[in-house]
């Protein structure tokens, strides 16, 4: 039997919760695409508005990469509320989820798919209310008052 340290166990818990939330996004995205293929409802009648989805796609992609790069460089030894507030984490506690939201909703707007946009909103609310709360409880348990102070500092 392997013995794991606390750091590894917390990391596994957080990654499990995040993986579950991403699976919800993926399943609802596929369901939205499926319904859009069947029913062919259009979100916008003006093709100019569809072009507005492209900046959302770009911004979502950028935000995801920025968040991943920033979170990979978190120094484990010197944990403080200031250490959490780096890169996009100064603006939101869950930049990867916001990036995923902007990416998928931008895609839904570009392909003018009402169900993709609708199910993206549902996926965002479900992951925000269920999975991100679980993730934050794990992080607060792991980092204690430092993470609680960070939560007070960064509201989103």
TrEMBL record:
Record's bilayer topology term: Multi-pass membrane protein
Keywords carried by this UniProt record: Membrane, Transmembrane, Transmembrane helix
Subcellular location as annotated: Endomembrane system
Endpoints of the signal sequence: none
Transmembrane segments: 21-41, 47-67, 100-126
Matches recorded under Pfam families: PEMT
Gene3D superfamilies reported in the protein's UniProt record: 1.20.120.1630
Broad class of the protein's primary localization: membrane
Keyword Metal-binding: no
Superkingdom per UniProt: Bacteria
A single GO cellular-component term on record: endomembrane system
Name of protein: Steroid 5-alpha reductase C-terminal domain-containing protein
Taxonomic classification: Bacteria, Candidatus Nomuraibacteriota
């Amino acid at each position: 039997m392997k013995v794991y340290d606390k750091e590894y166990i917390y990391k596994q818990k957080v990654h499990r919760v995040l993986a579950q939330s991403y699976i919800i996004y993926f399943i609802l995205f596929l369901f939205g695409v499926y319904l859009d293929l069947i029913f062919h409802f259009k979100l916008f009648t003006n093709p100019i508005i569809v072009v507005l989805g492209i900046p959302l796609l770009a911004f979502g992609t950028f935000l995801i990469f920025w968040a991943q790069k920033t979170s990979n460089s978190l120094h484990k030894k010197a944990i403080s509320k200031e250490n959490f507030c780096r890169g996009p984490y100064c603006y939101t506690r869950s930049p990867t989820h916001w990036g995923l939201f902007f990416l998928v909703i931008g895609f839904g707007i570009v392909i003018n798919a009402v169900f993709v946009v609708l199910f993206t909103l549902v996926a965002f609310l479900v992951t925000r209310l269920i999975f991100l709360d679980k993730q934050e409880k794990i992080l607060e348990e792991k980092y204690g008052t430092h993470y609680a102070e960070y939560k007070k500092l960064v509201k989103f």
